[in-house]
Amino acid sequence: MNLQYALELAGTFVFAISGALAVQDREHDLFGAGFTGFITAIGGGSLRDILLGAYPLVWIGNVNFLYAIFAGIVTTFLFFRFVAKLRRTLFFFDTLGIGFFTILGVEKALGLGFRPEIAAIMGMFSAVMGGVIRDTLTNEIPILFRKEIYASACLAGAVVYLALNHWGMERDYNLLLSISIIITIRLLAVKYKLSLPGLGQHPKRNG
Amino acid sequence: MNLQYALELAGTFVFAISGALAVQDREHDLFGAGFTGFITAIGGGSLRDILLGAYPLVWIGNVNFLYAIFAGIVTTFLFFRFVAKLRRTLFFFDTLGIGFFTILGVEKALGLGFRPEIAAIMGMFSAVMGGVIRDTLTNEIPILFRKEIYASACLAGAVVYLALNHWGMERDYNLLLSISIIITIRLLAVKYKLSLPGLGQHPKRNG
Amino acid sequence: MNLQYALELAGTFVFAISGALAVQDREHDLFGAGFTGFITAIGGGSLRDILLGAYPLVWIGNVNFLYAIFAGIVTTFLFFRFVAKLRRTLFFFDTLGIGFFTILGVEKALGLGFRPEIAAIMGMFSAVMGGVIRDTLTNEIPILFRKEIYASACLAGAVVYLALNHWGMERDYNLLLSISIIITIRLLAVKYKLSLPGLGQHPKRNG
Q1: Chain B CA closest to residue A138
Q2: What is the average pLDDT across A103-129?
């Protein structure tokens, strides 16, 4: 459990950095960048817990998450030039975080007694809604609608976890497997520019 | 009550279709369209219940609403060309749904012991906020601000329901009457392009 | 306490006016302007209370806040030309309101037993998130990201209040002092066009 807690804090730290970096090209000041990092890091889990009525929200009940976010924002400020060069590394850790938070969200909803269908949606929301809120606030079409096979990778991993859980697979193996599925789908989709078709279109490859 | 429940599921189905269709012209994939249908269908009722603290949210407590949404999304995907041609029919059912969910929202808030002023706002929110959230996510000026006499029709119907309820009209008649008022105002407004005036303007007809 | 309650209602009235005025230049009808005034006035406090799970929300539990909002909207409609000329006066009262609601938000969170770190964030959210939601709905980059030293002034005042509270300063003096700090920072920032630097930039003066 200590490993899981450390990973949660680390994932929150990475989400805060990627959120703060998201506004570097626009007319945002440091405060706006920090605020965006904060929203990105807490948005998904907060929305999940508000929808489920699961109080207190994680970062409100445990102030260490707030410190992880603060550390991420300060790191971005102090080492901006260095961090901005690490985009590929950050993308990789961001993808790890998305997979990890999806399955944690599924487990939280299941643990509170909600049905698997609800748990799958809550897992996906945990991972992607922080970014959706960030993009909405900064007036962009949310990444979820632009970069295909992003939220859908999370949903696929959540469904796999729920199925294997239902069939009795041990939790640790299931966690590793379903997170790996999310990460693999996401990395393959980005590498090969895979995308789902739109309404009234045939499947295509971008570019 | 069974008729009401069936109508609620049917209204949710229609809202999901109209939400999914809303993104057909943009760079959305199937997942984005489904996600938008989902948000449109659950947004208004979820916001109402979160504001009231009425847990569990309807679709989280009763998974049949999730299935109604899923059916609406799959229907849109499979029969896209057919559904897209039914715009007038869909608009009619959407208008029915807006009237119906307004009054159900009013009744829910009243039933939980909230004041009529709050119930009127919650009724309007139930009907229109799904569309507002949808438009905000897809980076449009919400329909509520563009298409006049839309949310205001819901508010008018809610006030009529509350007044007649206060004066003792039987529930079934009141339901039918106040829903009809919402639908009539909305259809007349669209047919004759009626609109409310803006700030510092005189009343006008559009176009 | 009666003075504080009167100030809360007055602040809500002013926020509703500034919200309704915010949409005068666009294609909004009276209803859209009223809706925007409503959202601006309730948004920050509602978000704070939803995040904290502090039910009922202020305006839902006490209908007088609804009447204060309604009065602000009607005032804007009836005396639009007059009110629109009062921009400087409104800006001043809006700034007063932001300072006041920041510290009230801090006190509410503290009173509910939350940690100071959470209370500081909740104070800032109370004051600024109504405007952020308003700007997001009307498809603008939120003022928080554009006009520097706005939310950060609130955060600074909240931290000062918490520090002085921790060191035992009497509540009334602390309230006046920390609100004055927020107002002073905000007014100086606007007068001298002060701003925080952006990521990878040096501190600068705008314009």
Answers
A1: B139
A2: 96
